[in-house]
Every structure is written in C-alpha cells, then in structure tokens.
C-alpha cells in the first residue's frame, strides 16, 4: 500500500511538474488536417448535400399533384446518388475523373429515385425503383467519387495524382471550382441604415421550405414592416395585433421597462390607433386590404387565410408557428424592435456588415443544393403541366403514365450549365449571381490550392466602396490576410485556427496548477490512441468562431501566458483571463503565405508579393499532366529550408524551384552562371482533333502520308509521332473527310479501297501545328481516346523550351547577364556561386541587425538541410 | 618614438626595404573587419618619405582605412632606392612549383614566385580552354522513357569520356565526321515488361570503334544509303588508341530510369570542344587558387587565452605546447589550413595575431572531371598559354 502511495505521489509530481513549452502541440495539426483537410470544407459540404440535404429537399417537395385530378399524384419515396457512370447506348460505362478530363465529359452520377404514383381510373399504386431523373456532377474526392478512400497506388492506376486535393468538379472536361461565397448570415438580425438614411432591421429567413426577407424600418419616428406580399409598408403595431398581441402594454413590456423604448414606440401606437385597429380581427381585415396582387397568391381562395399564411410562412419564416401559436414570432419581433431602438439611442450598436461574425461562408454543397432544389421544382412543375395537358387530351393510345413525362434533361442540363458558366440564376430564390464557379488554375500546384481556399466576397466589384475591401480586424485568424488578390478575393486558410487549444483547463487553473499541458500530453502518450476528434469531444480542443472569439482571450505562445505573480512584460494580461491557446501560430497564415520562410522578418509587402509570385512558381503541377497549358521544371528540387505548411500540403513532393548557391556582392548586375541552371521551362500546348462520323455512314479517315511536304512528322498511321520535331504549319494529323457527307453511299466497301476513292470521295482536312514562327517544338505525347459520341479523338501535347526565369523570396529577378564560369568569383574553398545578387537590391527598410539575423537563419538552414522554420520567441 | 628631423634620418640600405614596407609589398593583411591592403599606389617618393618619417605606426593605423590598393608600380619605392620591377633572372631563380597532393582526380600544388595575373590566367585556361571530348550529337532511334529527348541528350553530354583529346581534331562545320574527330557510342536499353524499374547507367554506352551504324535517310532510294560518320578505319586499330579502349570514365552515373516496357535506343557522337562553348567540355569541375596564409603570433599567448584561441579556430590552425610549470602556450601548427575566416582576430586578443597572405605564393587545386588526369590538365594549360604568347610575339614581329 505504502509503495503504491509513493508511486502515485511521484506520478502526480511528475504530472504537475511545469514544462517549458508544449512542444508537441504541433503534432495536432496534421491530425487536424486529417479530420478537416485543406479543401475538406468543400468536400464535407458536398458530402452533406449528397447524403442529407438532397433527401430533405426531396422530402419537402415529394409530391407532384395534378390540381384538377387530386387522385392523380406521384410521390418520391427515396433518392440516391450512385457512383459516376455514363449510360451509353447499351451499357453503362463507369467514369473516372481523368477519363472525363481527357474526353471532355462531365464527371457525374445518375440521380436515382424511387417513386410511387397512380394512374387515372386505377386504384392501386404503381411503384418504380431507381428511376433516373438526371445526372449530378460529382465533386472529386467526395464520398460519391470513385477516388474516395483509394490509396496512392490505386489513384495512380486511375491516372490521378495523389497530391491533388480534389474539391472541384469536371464539367465537359474542364475543372471547375465553386468558390466559397461570403454572405451575410441567414436568420440573423442586422441593424443598418438604408439608402435614405432610415434605421433598418432586416432578417433573411432561410428554411427548407422558404427563403424570405423581412425588413423593419423607421420612417418619421414610426416603425414599419416592409414585405413584398403587402402593397405598402405596414405599421408594426398592426402586425403585432394581427399576430394576436392586442394589448399595447404587453408589447411595451416585451421591449423593456425603460421609458425610452416607450417613447420610441409611441408614434407607431398612435398611428395604429388612428387607423382604428384594436383587435386581431380588425388588424387582419386591414391587412387583407393591403395585399399585393402577386400571382403566387392567386390560388388562395380565402383572403383571411392568405394573410395568416403570409404571417406564418413569409413573415420571419424561420420562426416556427405551431398550432397557430404566434407567440414566438411576437417575441422575435419585439427583439428586433428593441435592437432597432437601441441603435437609435446609441449609434454604436449598429451592426457592421463587414464584421466576419455577421457573415457566413457558403460552400459548394450549399450552392449546388440551391441549384438542385430549383431545378427539381422546375422539373416537377413541368411534369405536372405535361400530365395535365395529356389528361385533357381525350384520345390516348397508351394509358397515362407519369413515367413517360419524367424527363431527365432539366436537371442534368441545368446543373451542367450553371457550374460550367458560373451563373447561378435562380428566380425562385431571387438569386442571380455570376462567376460563382471558375476554371481551376493549373499553372502551379500552389495556385491550385490557393484557388480552392479562396473566398469570394459578396459585393459588386464595380462599386467604389472601401468598407468591404478593407481588412477587418475580425478576419484575423480566419481569412488569410496576407494574400489578398487585387482586393477581390481573399484566401481562406485552413480553418485550423478556428480551433484553439483549450487551456485544460479552467478547472485545473482554479487549482492553480501550473503545468496544465503536462497532464494532457502525458496522458496522450499513455493511451496513444486518442484522435483529434477525441480531443475535441473531451473539450481539450475547441473550435471558436468569430463571435465566440469575442469572449475569449487567446494566447499565441505559451510564453505569453504570464507566470504566476507579476510578469513585467505582460503586466496588462492576467493569467486567469487567458482562456485558450492557439495550436500553432503559423496557421494564421494561409497556404500560399505559409510557404514563405521567416515571414515575420520580411517587410510586409514582400510577403504579399511572394504570395502572388509563389503561384507562378514553375515546377511539377501534379503527377498526372494533361492540361491545355502547363509549365514544367526539368530539375525541380526540394527546398533545403522548408516550412511546416510546405510539408503539410505535400509541396515538397512536387518541388517548384532549385536551391542555388548565392553570392551577395556587387558584380555586373544580377547574374546567373550556367546553362544547366537555366535550362528549364517547358511550355506545353494541347490541340484536339476529332474524327467525325457523318450521318451517311461515311467517316473521316486518317491515312498514311506519301512523302509530301510538311508531313515529315507523321508516322505510318498518319498521326505525328512523339519525339518528332514540328514547326509552324507542319501537319499533325493526315486527316481526310468525305466530300459527300449527306447522301447515302450505295457501296460502303468502295470507301475502304482508298486507292480508288482517294481523290473521288475524300478531301484532305489536315490538322496542322499553329505555333509561333521560328520556334522548334517537339511532340511530347499523343493521346487517343473516344469521346462520348464514340468519335475518335486525338490530343497532342506539344512541348517547347522556354527560358523564363525568376528568383525567390518576394524579390523578382531579371537575368542581367550570363557570365562564364571562369569570370565568376570563387571562394577560399573553391565554391563558385550559381548566381550573384546585388546587395543594393535588398530592401533598405531593415535595421541592420534584423538583416543579419535573416542571413544567419538562411545560412544555418542551408547547412543543416531540412531544419524547420519555427519562430523563436527571442526574435 | 620621437620625431626625427629629415636631415638627421639614418641612411636606408639599398635594395632592401624596411621591414614594414617589405611586408606591405609582399603580403596582404587581414584585420577583423576585412582584408586590407595596407599600402598605397605610391606616386613617386614623396609618400614614401612620409611613410618612413612617420614610421610604421602611421602606415598601419592611419592609412589602412584610406588605402586599399597595391603597390604594383615598378618605381613605387624608387624614392628610397628600391627597384620594384620584375627581372626575368630573378623570376627564373625564385619560381617554384611544389606538388603537395596528387590523386587520380585532384592535384594540389603550390606555385611560388608568380604574379596573380599569371596564376589567374592558368585558372581560366583550365576551366574554359583545355579541350576534352564530350557528347555533342545524339541520334535517337527510340525513346519511350519518361525523359524527353532533349533532356536525355543534355544529360549524356555531361558524362565525362575517357579519351585523350590530344589524339583528336576539332570538328569544324565543313568537316565530315571521321575517326580523327568523332567518337561514336551506342546505347540500347530495354526494361522488361514484367519486372522492376531499370536504372540506366553510363556503362550502357558502348563504344563503336567503327563509327556510326545508322543509315542516313536519303531522298533518292536508288543511291546507296550513307552512314552518319565516314570512318576510314577502326579507331581501335589506331596506334595511340589501341592500347587503351575508349569508354566512359565513370560507369555508375545514372542517366535515367526506365519503367516496365520502356526502352531507349540511341547513338551518341562525341566531339572535341572547350569549356568556353559549353561547360560539358570543361576538363575540371572547378579549379581555384588561394594565396598562402601566414599566421603569426605577435605576442606569446599563454594559459586560458591560448586555450580560447585554439578553440576559436574552426580549422585547427593553432595548437598548444607545454612550456613547463603546467603552462601551455599557443603555437601556429598548421598555418596552411587557415581560410582567413578571421575568427581568431575577432574580439579580444586581436592585436596578438597577424593574419597575412603571401602575395606571390598560390595554392592551386585542380579537380578534374576525369576526362584528363588532373596534372595533365595543368600541363595542357601551360602549353595553351605558351601557344598564346607565341602567337602574340609572332603577331608583333
């Protein structure tokens, strides 16, 4: 017993022993990325849509009813989205993303539904399973994608790069990203002033059934409600009465006892009185008179019902009305009124629309869901109207069947069109946005990643407003603040900084145990199996959003937490007031800015420049390369000095640069030593040739060349061979098309005998290389495939060598001159630099000692190869 | 020292400079901040007069920050009767070459009693003008590897070839490739369809002493097709070559990797060239010289200071020596290893050490790529310089 006690005491002492820093904190980050990932937000939102949201949409719109014949209906019972396949004439072909990229197809899965429906004059229901109502474009690496859960070898087999993050769509062979849209929060009261300077409270309600906007405003001291369904603004007191709150005093009391509120509400009450409205009934009657003549309300028979319906379903639609109980709505209205009045009394309580806490980020899943909902409703109404028409027709040869009127084109084409053009034009939801999706930039790996994490703000770029463009303090830690691309898009960095390391924490602190971290980390080692999610579940790690951040005090480093007693450096911060600690401070930066070593030693615009330039860095883009334009580096190298971010995104596996020996001296300008260093960039270009099959069963053909000019690059099969040098106007495919493409050929065999038919039936329709004059280019690869109409296609990758060049670290360099090795300086050890930088080119804004430190770091890091950049507290 | 009137000054011996001026003439001084050439491009004797008058104190302290240029002018010390000009006889007597280290690929030797301009000329010639053989033309029959043709060719070009370039002629534009100016190699590699990846190494390049085996495509099918080279006899039968077959210097250089089913078939033609045109013809990886470092302890450094000094030096130039009574003093044991990093003169104790370089003593290092032995690279460079000089002389006369 005694032994045990001693042991436990020792363990306890060991646990309670203060440690200097939580070094292993970093290890949480890769774990976090496993759970969340860099583009996981896209994928998760799409998965949510596919697995949950789409079912809800179907559920709320599950019936197609023909109004004239109530017995005739169709009901959706189940919806599912399978693996991506394409139905060709007789068989289903399984799709994979790379195939779609090559053959310009859409990577999409059929949307299958189970339905039950009735036929006229028949009592029993008909059932149909797995009816395809359209094709849903599938996000790469989402749960429905063939790539999900595949390992590196399997991905390679599918022609896919394992480092590719996914999160985009392939529409007709083009990669499209749906940008993250920044939006004002839904279901949140925003107090603002409108264009006329009136105080204005608005709520955008969003539920699965409806999406509406309710606006209150103060005009001449009276408070009105603005709602589209009413022809003119309605005094707020009338609304309150219509919802059953007949007693003015009750309304007053809901606002609060302060007489100031009373004074502000008084004019509205007086107006209500002057309209002689006292009871709920009177209020409803009054509202009936104010109804707008909207077509959507045409069908309602009872006017009284219409007003009630509007109050239930349109006015503050997100506040539910159960069994005709308007009480919650009244309370919500009162809250809105109170917020408005607060704003009148105290200007500071106005909401800032740019405050990140008032915004939500809308992700691909939500956007696709909106699109799908709109198209699904459209399809349903189309089916209904077709059925109706068909029912009216007296003579029918076949019995009326819903199946015949279910068309899959509406949804398929609608989704494809919207994602490929980026125009979200949804009249039903009053949404008309352009540029929602963009072509994924593939010029550099980092550019691709940067694209996936970018946030598109919601304001017109033409407007000269500074507010939304300026940096908001609340963005810090949420949106990458360094990489703001011409002020129109912001980078969303990994949401890792949404989570702060909860300081074990409050409980232990109350006991004033110093080493809170100790117990946690030792514990972790003991079981060794707790995942990141476990930490979150146990409350050791918390996700904080902007609003919650306001109630927290977050330390970036452990050493910033003041010691017990008085710490002179941090005298203004009490230890007990710190609630959280950041997992890793560098996560404040996004992916693109994270590539910069020692950013905190840089002049700030340098970091911004580097963000723009990092995306232009040449190197390998991915393991699979079949894009129309790409730049490759012949000898890419892994940087000697890496950052954690580089490793986390796998950039070190691709490499986009070379480690150079640099001499800093004044020589003859910016110089570069050897041709090997320079010999690098290849610019490849793709061209597409399609072999057409014409209606009369004749087809194009590709024939063997006969020693003709400009055809030296062709092989015996009539297609240019890889490795052949091509110049401008050289022929890549020796293609011939039939002259007669319309009339039926009596003897198709005549076509086969190409000696006789050569001049008679066919005219040359060669495809030639249209590159620049005077440049020698080489055919790199030839890809043959058949497109979705089974036509044979040939794609070429054509390579030429360029000599573009640039230096790193936020400093653009131009090759001033190329100098022979023997003219270069050399050191005592015989080292000859690869390039010389002029010291005058360094930013002059450094204090000399800073300058030296940076060089010291570079020096150290290049000596010991893969040292990690880690900001030291001393600098 | 008290000032002396000019008239009372003692006579200065002829042909012998005072010690500080002799050092100034023959040494480069290194102080903690940077190497300083403590001398002046002395214009006539006036400056010298001042120097002598004010003694070395002025020369070392006051002038060092101002003046960093050499006394190269032959009449630089004429005012005190010293002839600074170079005499051929003196050069003949004093010039020495001492080989310190010689291995297959590296030679280190000292060249003593020569001006920097000449030493640099040798360095430049070795890098850029000594010819070697390197692959210049690659005829690719088939290349299904992932490496593009031009990159593959570039890599082949950089391989050092073991062939004495002195036995070959330059191939000028109008020449037809023959056994006197071209070496032909052949490579045929195939990676089996089922099997691991194959690393293609330089040993796969096989010498074809009879020249190219590929036929030129001729526009007229009736004429006899020609080959890419026209060898009149086999290179192996040439007397100079017969003993030492031509091949790659290193047989284990990885050229590329082949995946299953990929293959490469090519012919590579090597010709003579110089590093000036392309670095692949340079016979050396690099070659460089440094002036001999001279480390002198001006005062005796003992005890703790001595230990500190020994520790300071990254190259272990200093050593400890027992002086009895459990005392140790620092001695300069390996001055040659000094890189003049100036660690020892930084901080306290700076005044104890003099760091200098001998102005006319060059330590040369030649790192050969293997195409030529390192010592041959140097002798070839000497020949080339000689040739150049003769050309100048013949042009002048």
Helices and strands, with pairings:
The complex is a heterodimer of chains A (875) and B (397).
Chain A: H1 2-16, H2 28-35, H3 40-60, E1 63-66, E2 69-81, E3 85-87, E4 92-94, H4 97-102, E5 108-117, E6 126-137, H5 152-157, E7 169-171, E8 174-178, E9 180-184, E10 190-193, E11 199-206, E12 211-219, E13 222-226, E14 234-235, H6 236-242, H7 248-255, H8 259-274, H9 280-289, H10 303-313, H11 327-345, E15 359-362, H12 364-392, H13 409-421, E16 424-426, E17 431-433, E18 437-439, H14 445-452, E19 454-456, E20 479-485, E21 489-492, E22 499-502, H15 506-510, H16 516-527, H17 532-537, E23 541-543, H18 546-549, E24 554-555, E25 580-582, H19 604-614, E26 629-632, H20 644-649, H21 651-654, E27 662-664, E28 671-672, H22 675-678, E29 682-690, E30 701-702, E31 725-726, E32 731-733, E33 735-738, H23 749-752, H24 754-761, E34 762-764, E35 767-768, E36 777-786, E37 792-801, E38 817-818, E39 835-837, H25 848-863
Parallel strand pairs in A: 9-19, 24-25, 27-39, 28-38
Antiparallel strand pairs in A: 1-2, 2-5, 3-4, 5-6, 7-8, 8-18, 9-15, 10-11, 11-12, 12-13, 13-14, 16-17, 19-21, 20-21, 22-23, 22-25, 26-29, 28-39, 29-37, 30-33, 31-36, 32-35, 33-34, 36-37
Helix pairs in contact in A: 3-12, 6-9, 9-10, 12-13
Chain B: H1 19-26, E1 27-30, E2 35-36, H2 46-62, H3 88-94, E3 96-102, E4 106-112, H4 116-128, E5 132-143, H5 149-157, E6 161-162, E7 183-190, E8 198-201, E9 206-208, H6 239-242, E10 247-248, E11 254-258, E12 263-273, E13 284-297, H7 303-312, E14 318-324, E15 327-332, E16 353-368, H8 374-396
Helix pairs in contact in B: 4-8
């Amino acid at each position: 017993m005694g032994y045990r006690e001693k042991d436990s005491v020792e363990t306890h002492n060991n646990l309670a022993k203060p440690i200097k820093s939580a070094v292993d904190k970093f290890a949480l980050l890769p774990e976090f990325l496993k759970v969340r990932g860099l583009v996981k937000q896209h994928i998760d939102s799409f998965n949510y849509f596919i697995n949950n949201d789409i079912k809800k949409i179907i559920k709320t719109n599950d019936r197609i009813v023909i109004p004239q014949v109530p017995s005739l209906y169709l009901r959706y019972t189940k919806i599912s989205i399978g693996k991506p396949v394409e139905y060709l004439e007789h068989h289903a072909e399984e799709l994979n993303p790379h195939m779609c990229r090559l053959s310009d197809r859409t990577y999409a899965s059929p949307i299958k539904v189970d339905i039950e429906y009735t036929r006229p004059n028949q009592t029993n229901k008909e059932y149909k399973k797995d009816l395809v109502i359209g094709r849903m474009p599938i996000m790469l690496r989402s749960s429905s994608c063939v790539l999900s859960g595949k390992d590196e070898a399997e991905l390679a087999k599918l022609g896919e790069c394992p480092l590719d993050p996914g999160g985009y769509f392939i529409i007709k062979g083009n990669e499209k990203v749906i940008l993250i849209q920044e939006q004002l929060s839904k279901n949140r009261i925003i107090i603002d002033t409108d264009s006329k300077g009136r105080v204005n409270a608005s709520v955008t309600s969003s539920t699965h059934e409806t999406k509406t906007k309710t606006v209150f405003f103060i005009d001449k001291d009276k408070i009105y409600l603005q709602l589209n369904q009413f022809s003119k603004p309605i005094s707020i007191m009338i609304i309150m009465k219509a919802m059953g709150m007949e007693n003015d005093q009750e309304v007053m009391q809901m606002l609060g006892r302060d007489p100031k509120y009373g004074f502000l509400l008084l004019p509205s009450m007086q107006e209500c009185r002057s309209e002689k409205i006292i009871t709920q009934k009177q209020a409803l009657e009054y509202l009936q008179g104010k109804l707008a003549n909207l077509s959507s309300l045409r069908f309602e028979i009872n006017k009284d019902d219409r007003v009630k319906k509007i109050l239930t379903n349109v006015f503050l639609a997100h506040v539910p009305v159960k069994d005709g109980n308007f009480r919650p709505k009244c309370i919500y209205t009162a809250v809105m009124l109170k917020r408005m009045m607060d704003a009148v009394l105290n200007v500071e309580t106005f909401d800032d629309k740019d405050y990140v806490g008032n915004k939500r980020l809308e992700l691909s899943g939500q956007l696709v869901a909106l699109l799908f909902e709109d198209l699904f409703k459209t399809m349903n109404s189309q089916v209904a109207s077709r059925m109706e028409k068909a029912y009216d027709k007296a003579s029918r040869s076949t019995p009326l069947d819903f199946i015949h009127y279910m068309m899959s084109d509406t949804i398929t084409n609608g989704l494809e069109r919207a994602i490929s053009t980026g125009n979200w034009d949804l009249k039903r939801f009053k949404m008309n946005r352009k540029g929602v999706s963009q072509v994924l930039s593939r010029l550099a790996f980092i550019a691709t990643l940067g694209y996936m994490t970018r946030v598109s703000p919601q304001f017109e770029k033409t407007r000269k407003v500074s507010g939304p463009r300026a940096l908001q303090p609340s963005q810090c830690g949420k949106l990458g603040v360094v990489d703001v691309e011409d002020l129109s898009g912001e980078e969303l960095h990994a949401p890792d900084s949404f989570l702060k390391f909860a300081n074990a924490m409050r409980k232990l602190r109350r006991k004033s145990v110093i080493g809170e971290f100790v117990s946690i980390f030792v514990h972790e080692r003991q079981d060794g199996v707790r995942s990141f999610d476990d930490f979150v579940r146990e409350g050791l790690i918390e996700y904080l959003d902007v609003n919650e951040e306001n109630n927290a005090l977050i330390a970036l480093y452990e050493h910033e937490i003041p010691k017990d007693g008085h710490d002179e450096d941090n005298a203004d911060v009490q230890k007990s007031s710190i609630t959280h600690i950041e997992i890793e401070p560098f996560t404040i930066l996004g992916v693109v800015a994270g590539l910069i070593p020692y950013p905190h030693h840089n002049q700030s615009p340098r970091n911004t420049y580097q963000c723009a330039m990092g995306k232009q860095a040449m190197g390998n883009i991915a393991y699979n390369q079949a894009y129309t334009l790409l730049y490759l580096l012949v000898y890419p190298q892994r940087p000697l000095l890496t950052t954690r971010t580089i490793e986390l995104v796998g950039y070190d596996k691709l490499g986009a640069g070379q480690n150079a020996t640099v001499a800093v001296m004044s020589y003859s300008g910016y110089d570069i030593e050897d041709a090997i260093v320079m010999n690098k960039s290849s610019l490849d270009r793709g061209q597409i040739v399609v072999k057409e099959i014409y209606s009369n069963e004749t087809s194009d053909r590709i024939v063997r060349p006969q020693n003709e000019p400009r055809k030296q690059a062709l092989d015996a099969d009539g297609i240019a061979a890889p490795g052949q040098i091509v110049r401008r106007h050289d022929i890549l495919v020796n293609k011939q098309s039939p002259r007669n493409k319309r009339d039926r050929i009596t003897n198709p065999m005549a076509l086969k005998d190409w000696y006789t038919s050569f001049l008679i039936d066919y005219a040359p329709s060669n495809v030639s290389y249209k590159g620049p004059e005077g440049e020698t280019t080489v055919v790199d690869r030839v890809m043959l495939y058949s497109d979705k109409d089974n036509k044979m296609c040939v794609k070429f990758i054509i390579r030429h060598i360029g000599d573009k060049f640039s230096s790193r670290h936020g400093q653009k360099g131009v090759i001033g001159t190329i100098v022979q090795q023997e003219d270069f300086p050399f050191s005592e050890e015989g080292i000859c630099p690869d390039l010389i930088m002029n010291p005058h080119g360094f930013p002059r804004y450094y204090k000399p000692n800073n300058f030296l430190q940076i060089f010291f770091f570079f020096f150290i890091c290049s000596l010991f190869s893969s040292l990690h950049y880690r900001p030291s507290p001393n600098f | 020292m008290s000032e002396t009137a000019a008239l009372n000054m003692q006579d200065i011996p002829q042909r012998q400079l005072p010690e500080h001026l002799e050092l100034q003439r023959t040494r480069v001084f290194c102080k903690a901040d940077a190497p300083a050439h403590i001398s002046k491009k002395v214009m006539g004797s006036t400056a010298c007069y001042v120097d002598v008058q004010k003694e070395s104190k002025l020369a070392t302290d006051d002038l060092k920050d101002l003046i960093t240029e050499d006394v190269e002018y032959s009449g630089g010390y004429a005012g005190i009767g010293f002839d600074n000009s170079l005499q051929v006889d003196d050069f003949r007597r004093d010039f020495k070459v001492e080989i310190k280290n010689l291995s297959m690929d590296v030679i280190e030797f000292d060249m003593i009693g020569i001006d920097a301009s000449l030493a640099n000329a040798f360095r430049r010639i070795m890098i850029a003008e000594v010819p070697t053989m390197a692959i210049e033309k690659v005829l690719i029959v088939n290349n299904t590897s992932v490496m593009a043709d031009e990159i593959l060719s570039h890599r082949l070009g950089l391989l050092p070839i073991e062939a004495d370039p002195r036995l070959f002629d330059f191939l000028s534009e109008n020449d037809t490739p023959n056994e006197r100016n071209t070496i032909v190699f052949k490579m045929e590699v195939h990676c089996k369809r089922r099997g691991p990846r194959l690393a293609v190494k330089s040993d796969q390049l096989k010498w074809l002493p009879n020249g190219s085996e590929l036929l030129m495509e001729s526009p007229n099918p009736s004429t006899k097709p020609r080959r890419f080279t026209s060898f009149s006899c086999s290179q192996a039968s040439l007397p100079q070559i017969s003993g030492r077959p031509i091949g790659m210097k290193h047989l284990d250089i990885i050229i590329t990797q082949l995946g299953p089913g990929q293959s490469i078939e090519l012919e590579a033609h090597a010709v003579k060239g110089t590093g000036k045109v392309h670095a692949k013809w340079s016979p050396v990886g690099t070659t460089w010289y440094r002036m001999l470092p001279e480390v002198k302890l001006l005062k005796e450094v003992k005890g703790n200071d001595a230990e500190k000094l020994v520790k300071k030096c990254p190259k272990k130039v200093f050593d400890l020596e027992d002086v009895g009574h459990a005392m140790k003093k620092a001695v300069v044991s390996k001055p040659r290893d000094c890189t003049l990093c100036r660690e020892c003169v930084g901080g306290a104790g700076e005044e104890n050490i003099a760091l200098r370089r001998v102005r006319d003593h060059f330590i040369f290092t030649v790192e050969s790529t293997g195409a030529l032995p390192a010592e041959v690279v140097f002798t070839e460079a000497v020949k080339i310089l000689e040739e150049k000089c003769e050309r100048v002389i013949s042009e002048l006369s």
